[in-house]
Structure prediction request, 226 residues.
Amino acid sequence: DTAVSQTPKYLVTQMGNDKSIKCEQNLGHDTMYWYKQDSKKFLKIMFSYNNKELIINETVPNRFSPKSPDKAHLNLHINSLELGDSAVYFCASSQAGDNQPQHFGDGTRLSIL
Amino acid sequence: GDSVTQMEGPVTLSEEAFLTINCTYTATGYPSLFWYVQYPGEGLQLLLKATKADDKGSNKGFEATYRKETTSFHLEKGSVQVSDSAVYFCALTLNTGFQKLVFGTGTRLLVSP
Prediction:
């Protein structure tokens, strides 16, 4: 009965590779998000989708491309991985509208060698 | 721009001690304010929220009051437990319909028996 699930939980890869992280929510929410948490625990939003439409795109390199095949899924594809991409990536979801709490997945720890 | 400032951690307390974690914000407009908690190896969970001035959010013995005059949302608990050890994040959203959470840097709480 996991609400927001991300796969994989850990991802270790080399510089220059391309990788994807998948996210699914079974809460019936309309809005999904990707956040990046760096080594100092600082969290910053990357993208947000509402009903498969991109609504927030923070200043993220073009190498990061989110894809939302339906409103229950928001995947993150990263091209040409760099050392600075090492972080924990969190997916979240919420109902649309103000003040709605966001529900987070357990994170994907990406390590670039 | 909009930002959240939290006290640096770690905060180290003995069980049953009183907890305060300071949080102040800068925002254009009237934000909603949140406290999220992150237990080791997990994603963030909403702890409490307040959506307008003088509102008090409370949950699991934790409280925070939205103080517009001091632009603050300090987290308090009267008697902490070892199980409260976690990282606590203060955050805001502006009520624009786009739920972009802006997080503080997080404060690690360590409670010893």
In short: Chain B has a mean pLDDT of 93.
